[in-house]
Amino acid sequence: MITSDAITWNAPNDDHPARAASQRSYSAVAKGDLEEWLTVYAEDAVLEDPVGPSMFDEEGKGHHGHDGIRAFWEKAIAPIDRFEFEINDSFANPGSNTCANIGRIKTSFPDGSYTTTDLIMVYVVHDDGRVASMKAYWEPARTMASFTPA
Q1: In whole angstroms, what is the distance from residue 8 CA to residue 94 CA?
Q2: Confidence of residue 1 (pLDDT cuts 50, 70, 90)
Q3: pTM of the full structure
Q4: Residue 81 falls in which region: left (phi positive, over 0), alpha (psi -120 to 50) or beta
Q5: SS3 134
Q6: Most buried pick, 32, 87, 91, 119, via CB within 10 A?
């Protein structure tokens, strides 16, 4: 399901529906394709990235539905020049609809500066394989501390 060279997958890679959805999500983000990304998410999906209050979600209630997820894209994804995903582990029990991926995302800005985010991302999918919930656990202060100028 990985369709981008900006994704390094060092984790189990079976055909689990939540794992496959996470890979489709990373691929769409890496390609900068909002419309493809929205097809990964159910119309009633909730995205929390990061979980809790942040610069992207002041109340910490998540981004709801395609309108909320699209607004998140405009704030958090669209301004970024390049995303590089490194997934080092993925946990998904057979027969479940959830996976948890452990990894790192390098976020490069147009001027060549970048940050690195270590995180855990938990995906829950509906029976049709589309994401119902995505929760990314990371700390904005730690990411900002990793800022490397161009």
Answers
A1: 23
A2: low
A3: 0.96
A4: alpha
A5: strand
A6: 87
Name the nearest CA neighbour of 113 among 78, 144, 75: 144
Whole-number pLDDT of residue 3: 75
Angle at 62 between CA 47 and CA 58, to 5 degrees: 135
Q: Which residues pair with 104 in a beta bridge?
A: 86, 118
Quick: pLDDT tens for 73-97.
Answer: 999 999 999 999 999 999 999 999 9
Cβ proximity of 45 and 130 under 8 Å: yes
Average pLDDT, the chain: 96
Identity of the residue numbered 81: D
Question: Residue 148 to residues 64, 101, 126: CA-CA distances in angstroms?
Answer: 32, 25, 39
Q: How confident is the model at residue 31 (pLDDT cuts 50, 70, 90)?
A: very high
Amino acid at 87: I
DSSP notation for 76-129:
IITT-SEEEEEEEEEE--TT-SEEEEEEEEEEE-TTS-EEEEEEEEEEEE-TTS
Pick the CATH number of 7-145 from 3.10.450.50, 3.40.720.10, 3.40.47.10, 3.40.50.12780: 3.10.450.50
